[in-house]
């Protein structure tokens, strides 16, 4: 009778599990990044002052760092003033409330990927 002995299978399995967790983390970043963008766009309806919809249309999602980071940003030069307000204009936050609404679910999904 012949016998076969595998050497290194523990390292292989550990590597495969690590890769699977990495892919789950990337999927969570993509999913919740897209959710953040949608919610920020939904929130970007301004009732005070002159509104053209340019800020809403300028909100973009950029996935980077090999799928491990998501950046949602409003591209208008004045979006920061709308978000935080000025001494002459009351704040109309749209990004921070969107972030607050997705953060808990994002962290939960990352925890599941461990």
Total count of strands: 2
Q: What do the pLDDT scores average to?
A: 88
- The shape is rod-shaped
Classify the beta-strand content into a percent band.
5-15%
Q: Could you give the order of the helices and strands?
A: HHEEHH
Order of neighbouring strands in the sheet with most strands? 1-2
Instruction: Please state the CA-atom Rg, rounded to the nearest Å.
Output: 22 Å
Structural commentary:
The chain is mainly α. The chain contains four helices and two strands. It has helices at residues 9-43, 54-58, 79-84, 95-112, and strands at 59-64, 69-74. It has a two-stranded antiparallel ribbon. A hairpin with a 4-residue loop joins strand 1 (59-64) and strand 2. Helix 1 (9-43) packs antiparallel against helix 4. The longest helix has 35 residues, at 9-43. The model has no long low-confidence stretch (mean pLDDT 88).
Features:
two-stranded antiparallel sheet, 114 residues, mainly alpha, rod-shaped
In short, what is this structure?
It is built from four helices and two strands.
Which helices and strands, and how do they pair?
Elements: H1 9-43, H2 54-58, E1 59-64, E2 69-74, H3 79-84, H4 95-112
Antiparallel strand pairs: 1-2
Helix pairs in contact: 1-4
